[in-house]
Design a protein that fits this description.
The chain contains two helices and two strands; from the N terminus they run αβαβ. The protein is α+β, with helices and mostly antiparallel strands. It is extended and about 35 Å long. Its cofactor is Zn(2+).
Length: 63
């Protein structure tokens, strides 16, 4: 087993290209979208690995 950092810049360039071409849709992993004032509750669900809480997007404007 080895450890180290991923080449994030290279991965980001490749991934953004795939997204732009419509070949990758990362939004499928987002399970919840919450206003910022609900962040503590959302983090608790995510941290406890509650069923269905995979990725949370927080909206600062409440939207």
């Amino acid at each position: 087993m080895g450890t180290g950092q991923a080449n994030v810049k290279a991965c980001n360039r490749q991934l953004s290209g795939l997204i732009e071409q419509g070949k990758a849709k990362p939004s499928w992993i987002v399970s919840h979208e919450l206003p910022l004032d609900q962040a503590p509750d959302g983090y608790q669900h995510f941290d406890q690995r509650d069923n269905g809480w995979t990725k949370v997007l927080l909206h600062p404007d409440g939207g």
